[in-house]
Amino acid sequence: MQPGRHPARRAADAAGTGPLLPAASGAAVAEFVATAIFVFAAEGSVYGLWMMYEDTGTPGGLVAVAVAMAHALALSAAVAVASNVSGGHVNPAVTFGVLVGRRISFGRAVIYWAAQLLGAVAAALLLMLVPGGTRPVGLGLGEGIHERHALLLEAAMTFGLMYAVYATAVVDTHRSRAGGVGAIAPLAIGFVLGANILAGGPFDGAAMNPARAFGPALVGWSWRHHWVYWVGPMIGAGLAGALYEFVMVEQQPSSEAPPAAAAAGRRMLGAAAEDY
Question: Where are the transmembrane segments (predicted)?
């Protein structure tokens, strides 16, 4: 989940033949597009399935499974298409967890947050225009679910999601080049999201992503319980990032990673800051 920094690209930049966008700007565009892809497919699946099966008597469980699968596949694709440019965060909570783990600078995190929120809003606007002005469905609490319950649920689900992100895509990224666990990171992350939606969707919608909640909320102008979808995921992602970075990583033998790769990971804070 770390932006790539290639010697060949730096040499091209020095020769004046590099990319049109600076690295941070390119990463922001990648996060904007990837988040828009995810929110469009995720929110669109909820609305589309509701339109298809509203009057057919289809069991709600089947619809829930379809929604979970749509979210899982959409997130897997979004992470995959952005991973080589921005790290494929696609989620302000994930960016916060990576920030807590000191794998990204605060300045780059702010750029990512802005891009992710704008991407979510763009996707929600497009979804409103396509069906003729219908407002996005958005997220909400189930019957009898209090905000404190939803807060705990969002924190717990996002903790699991962020732990999977850290384990497969943030730490020891050199393994993905060797065909290790990092190679399946997008699928693993998407599957965790889908499983959590099956578990928590009936209770609070299972956002685990402030951008996923923010885009439809802004376009549909529905802010009821909205703070839950920010505070819960941020708490869960921050705890997971801190646990993996400062407990699990410290327990790993140094022989697991080449010295150069380990040093590069530790220099990530400074490397990101060089981009802007």
Answer: 20-42, 62-82, 110-130, 150-171, 178-199, 227-247
User: Which amino acid is residue 51, in one-letter code?
Assistant: M
Q: Is 215:120 a contact under the CB 8 Å cutoff?
A: yes
pLDDT band at 180 (very low <50, low <70, confident <90, very high): low
3 state DSSP class of 205: coil
Contact 84, 164 (CB under 8 A): no
Q: In whole angstroms, what is the distance from residue 154 CA to residue 176 CA?
A: 29
Question: How far apart, in whole angstroms, are the C-alpha atoms of residue 155 and residue 138?
Answer: 19
Q: How far apart are CA 34 and CA 36, in angstroms?
A: 5
Handedness of CA 242, 226, 209, 199 (dihedral sign): positive
Q: Which are the contacts of 194, defined by CB distance < 8 A and separation ≥ 6?
A: 68, 69, 71, 72
Q: Which residues contact 153 (CB under 8 A, 6 or more apart)?
A: 200, 203, 204, 206, 232
Contact predicate 220/135, CB 8 Å: yes
Which residue's structure tokens are 């469905």?
137
Q: How far is CA 190 from the centre of its chain?
A: 10
Q: What is the DSSP letter of 249?
A: H
Tokens describing residue 204? 């609070």
Q: Which among 138, 137, 136, 140 is positioned nearest to 202, based on CA atoms?
A: 140
